Amino acid sequence: MMAAIFCTFILQIFIRYATGSGWFTALFGPINTAQFGWTVEFILVLWLWTIFWGNSFVVRDNDHVTFDIIYNTVGRRARTVLAITGAVIIVAALWISIMPTYDRMRLLRMRSSATLPVTMFPIYSIYFLFLGAVGLRYLWRACEVLRHGADREVHVLPPELAKAPEDRA
């Protein structure tokens, strides 16, 4: 998808700067640059899909920014409770939002894109995949923490870094 974004971007640059030049007009004749307005919307759609697809299936849990100051200072049992509680809250928030989001996006089935030959619903349908996949990921995380505890979590600092700075010497 990033390659398609890049190629479309290069096409935009070419259309903007080359088609207005004298040599291009002499070789190919005048070109209506308004016919290339679809490139902006196409890049936006690809970017949207790249973000949601990547977050659903590519980005690992330890690649996310976390606020784990409290999490890393408490004991194993408290970390287990925090990890399970956090995962369940994320699953609930994502999955509860599916139906209200669908109700809102049903309106998009009637609207079509300004420049692309497609209705808006398929463009934004990647969001439902994101909600489902990330919800399943955090449900799996909660199950793993229940089975094995929070010490196998990726957010726990190694023991030598978990000590206070004055204790490391």
Automatic annotation (TrEMBL):
One of its GO terms (molecular function) is transmembrane transporter activity. The keyword Oxidoreductase does not apply. It is found in: Cell inner membrane. Residues 6-147 form the Tripartite ATP-independent periplasmic transporters DctQ component domain. It is a multi-pass membrane protein. The complex comprises the extracytoplasmic solute receptor protein and the two transmembrane proteins. This is TRAP transporter small permease protein. It comes from Paracoccus tibetensis.
